[in-house]
Design brief:
The termini are far apart. The chain is mainly beta. It contains no helices and eleven strands.
Length: 112
């Protein structure tokens, strides 16, 4: 499995960005795809996940601002609205079957 993220960039506080992740290989809807992030000097943290037809899950810090969606089994999105400086991080896509696979990450910087 290979995962490729895109869509990061520099945005002002209050702005929006949409991240994308495309999976290659054996990627199935019934398994979980998720977004994590890692800020400078911080540990990687969970942002949001989606599994099959279950309701998405979100970290409290992003609930009501971020929306995770899965257009098809292999394409994952993260719509990020009302961005805050504390959302600045490298955002990683992951897919979990018998192991957790990771993308290379995409930088999101929220700054005026």
């Amino acid at each position: 499995v290979q995962l490729v993220e895109s869509g990061g960039g520099l945005v002002q506080p209050g702005g929006s960005l949409r991240l994308s992740c495309v999976g290659e290989g054996s990627v199935f809807r019934s398994f979980t795809m998720a977004w994590y992030r890692q800020g400078s000097g911080s540990e990687r943290e969970f942002v949001a996940s989606i599994t099959g037809r279950e309701a998405p899950k979100y970290a409290e810090s992003v609930k009501d601002r971020f929306t995770i969606s899965r257009d098809n089994p292999k394409t994952l999105f993260l719509q990020m609205n009302s961005l805050k400086p504390e959302d600045t991080a490298v955002y990683y896509c992951s897919y979990t079957d018998y192991k957790q696979w990771w993308g290379q990450g995409t930088q999101v910087t929220v700054s005026s």
